[in-house]
Design a protein that fits this description.
The chain has a 7-stranded mixed beta sheet with strand order 1-7-6-2-5-3-4, with helices on both faces. The chain is an alpha/beta fold and 236 residues long. The protein has 8 helices and 7 strands; from the N terminus they run ααββαβαβαβαβαβα. Helices cover 47% and strands 16% of the residues.
């Protein structure tokens, strides 16, 4: 019963914050208000769910610089956890289907996030150009879930090359991010929320400006995945 009460308040809270975010985007195209609201949203979601964050690795990177944050993905709670933990203003690369959700999807489409159609190569390439422009002009970082979808077991799935193709094209360093605990709080395919602790670890940035070939992208992909897995094992 408690889990369903949490879900109800999270649903209601999401509607309210999505509406406020939508209004803020129409008024403030610098997105300062929007990013302020994302912090309120994420911290509120974690509070309602009874979730505590443990974050490590802030000393590994410059909080004022621009990065491509590459994280594993096993739960819907990864997003509010990372929105709360990442100190930079950042854009999320999200799949086209999410943009159709009333209010929540609308504010994503109007906001500083990057929608990608994974079935359309031409559209995906345009998304990369949008990400590059946003990072260069606005100095927003980008968050990518390299597995492409949530893991059902919590184990890190094979990474998709697309995230590393983008990273090599924008030329900003990659920060490997390891998230543990979210799969226990809200596993994929379930609606039961459990209280608990989410651990997030940021590793050292990896340069990407000299990544030019497919082989180098794949090597970078495996390197980042290995780092993410190693830090998950340490945090478990």
């Amino acid at each position: 019963m408690l889990s369903y009460i949490k879900l109800f308040f999270i649903f209601l809270y999401t509607i309210i914050l999505s509406l406020l975010a939508l209004i803020s985007e129409l008024i403030d195209r610098s997105f300062k208000t929007y990013f302020f609201l994302t912090k309120i949203f994420s911290n509120g979601i974690l509070l309602i769910a009874g979730v505590r964050l443990e974050v490590s690795g802030y000393e590994s990177f410059d909080k004022d610089s621009t990065y491509v944050f590459v994280s594993n993905h096993s739960s819907q709670f990864d997003i509010p956890a990372l929105q709360s933990a990442v100190p930079q203003k950042f854009s999320i690369v999200y799949k086209k289907e999410l943009g159709k959700i009333p209010l929540f999807g609308w504010q994503m489409r109007l906001g500083p996030y990057i929608m990608i159609d994974r079935k359309n190569i031409e559209d995906a390439l345009k998304s990369i150009e949008r990400a590059k422009k946003m990072m260069s002009d606005k100095k927003f970082s980008v968050l990518l879930f390299a597995e492409g979808t949530r893991s059902k077991t919590g184990e890190v799935q094979p990474f998709k090359r697309g995230a590393f193709y983008l990273a090599s094209r924008v030329g900003f360093p990659i920060v490997p991010v390891s998230v543990t605990g979210t799969e226990k709080i809200l596993p994929k395919g379930r609606l039961k929320i459990k209280s608990g602790t989410i651990k997030i670890h940021f590793d050292k940035p990896i340069p990407t400006e000299n990544i030019n070939t497919r082989k180098e992208e794949l090597e970078l992909m495996e390197k980042v995945r290995d780092i993410v897995i190693q830090n998950i094992k340490k945090g478990s």
